Amino acid sequence: MKYISIIALSLLLTSCGSAYLANKVEKQLKGDWVLEEVSFPNSSGFFDTTIFDLAEVTCFENSQWSFVPNNATGGFILDGNTCDKQKQNFVWYIDKQTAESSTPEMLFKITTNQKAKEVDKGSRVSIKSLLEDQMVWQQKVTLEDKEVIIEMTFSKQ
């Protein structure tokens, strides 16, 4: 019985630890950010592909993003002359299973004009780095039957 109690307590502390770290990362995201650059490391050239099933890469550069951690919502406005400048709303959270890793993952889905529970498709990005004034995301996508990494560099406003 004593061993079962010890195992149960250690499992509880481990699960709380990852939830705590996820919450800490979420708080670091709070505020307004600008997506300054979209690049393709380890690839030759630039691909103007669609990101997040919404718009081409060029529309995302210089877009304005806002994260609200206490209700896990946010929004962004795309930039560019031919881009739809309508505010896009989203819900997001840090995956608790990856919160303890050096590259935690964020899951989010665009909810513009819809309730979050009605949206069944989302995106997963790895947070490569998160500093007080800069953040770098990476997302793996398939382009022309090859896996390509898209890297997004944000600066805090």
Number of helices: 2
Please describe the biggest sheet, giving its number of strands, its sense, and whether it closes into a barrel. 8 strands, antiparallel, barrel
End-to-end separation: 54 Å
DSSP strand content:
35-45%
Secondary-structure element order, as H and E?
A: HEEEHEEEEEEE
Shape: globular
Based on CA atoms alone, the radius of gyration comes out at 18 Å
Helix content: 10-25%
Q: Give the overall average pLDDT.
A: 84
Uncertain ranges: 2-16
Number of strands: 10
The assigned structural class equals alpha+beta
Main β-sheet, spatial strand arrangement: 1-4-5-6-7-8-9-10
Structure keywords:
157 residues, alpha+beta, two-stranded antiparallel sheet, 2 helices
Topology summary:
Blueprint: H1 2-29, E1 31-39, E2 50-51, E3 55-56, H2 57-60, E4 63-68, E5 73-77, E6 88-94, E7 105-110, E8 123-130, E9 134-143, E10 146-156
Antiparallel strand pairs: 1-4, 1-10, 2-3, 4-5, 5-6, 6-7, 7-8, 8-9, 9-10
Notes on the structure:
- The protein has 157 residues and is of the alpha+beta class.
- It is 20% helix and 42% strand.
- Strands 1-4-5-6-7-8-9-10 form an eight-stranded antiparallel beta barrel.
- It is globular and about 40 Å long.
- It starts with a helix and ends with a strand.
Kindly summarize this structure in a few lines.
This protein is α+β, with helices and mostly antiparallel strands. The protein has helices at residues 2-29, 57-60, and strands at residues 31-39, 50-51, 55-56, 63-68, 73-77, 88-94, 105-110, 123-130, 134-143, 146-156.
